[in-house]
Design goal:
Layout: H1 11-36, H2 41-70, H3 74-92, H4 101-129, H5 132-139
Helix pairs in contact: 1-2, 1-4, 2-3, 3-4
Domain Hemerythrin-like: 14-126
Pfam family, one: Hemerythrin
Protein name: Hemerythrin-like domain-containing protein
Length: 145
């Protein structure tokens, strides 16, 4: 994870980075369960999904909305959303009676690259691109319906 640009000082980026670390660790446990039999891979997949799904929702309903509104990083956000769909499509719809573990391992590789792109590309760029009012909206408590 990135430690050099200071973007983690922005509360939402700090939260998303902490979540990325937990997701990477959960993905590592899933990989180990698949490749070396250390644990139940389906249970490890469930652990990963329990972290990944709310994390992605936070990105797509928060940071990505503000970045699209700002406009300069729209293509990057669209690509990252497509990657979310791809990775979720593999991990979230796995046939648990006959799992395609090689496909899951490939998705885990894509997940790692995806996180790296967010950490070293999008997050630092977001800090520069978004005005302070956008960050205020991202860190203010949202009204509940």
């Amino acid at each position: 994870m990135c430690n050099y640009c200071g973007c983690r000082e922005f509360p939402l980026i700090g939260q998303l980075t902490t979540e990325h670390e937990a997701i990477v660790n959960a993905a590592g446990r899933l990989r180990a369960a698949i490749t070396s039999g250390t644990g139940d891979p389906v249970a490890r997949l469930d652990d990963l999904l329990a972290l990944l799904m709310p994390h992605t929702d936070t990105e797509e309903r928060g940071l990505f909305v503000e970045l699209r509104a700002e406009g300069s990083l729209t293509e990057a956000v669209d690509r990252l959303c497509d990657e979310h769909d791809d990775i979720h499509g593999v991990l979230g719809t796995l046939d648990r009676t006959a799992p395609d573990w090689p496909e899951v391992l490939a998705a885990l590789d894509r997940l790692r690259r995806h996180i790296d792109n967010e950490e070293h590309g999008l997050f630092p760029a977001a800090v520069i691109a978004l005005p302070i009012p956008a960050w205020d909206r991202l860190t203010s408590p949202q009204p509940t319906a």
